Amino acid sequence: MSRRLILSLLPALPLAAALPGGVRAQDAAIRLRDLYNRDLSFSDLALSNEGQRITIAGFMAPPLRAESNFFVLTKMPMAVCPFCEPGMPWPDDILAVYAKRVVDVVPFNVPLQTSGLLELGDYVDPELGFYSKVRLTDATYGRA
């Protein structure tokens, strides 16, 4: 590519973001803490992305059950799964993840990027009994 060609294309860069498949702010990874306000209510970011596909970075906690499509994403590596029950305060640094397929367990200290549909509100998994306040469904994940 010639230098002139590159310079002539520079003014078009802002337009490229508007094209389908262009980089958008919602494609950037969201941190777990970005989902909450200080009082642990859902943030405007969480509320505006409810039902949308988002990406969150974190670590896979050890699974509650083998051959499951469920795992817990944590802010920090944890050797023990932080299991929550109804009525207990929901920690702001974990996220329930329901994957599209059975989960291939990843060591707890390997960073992941997890993408899925954001769901908000109380939910108790009928099979596992796991209580969650926020979760990703139809999720995919991979090493960061």
TrEMBL record:
Signal peptide: 1-25
Recorded superkingdom: Bacteria
Annotated keywords: Signal
Protein name as it appears in the record: DUF3299 domain-containing protein
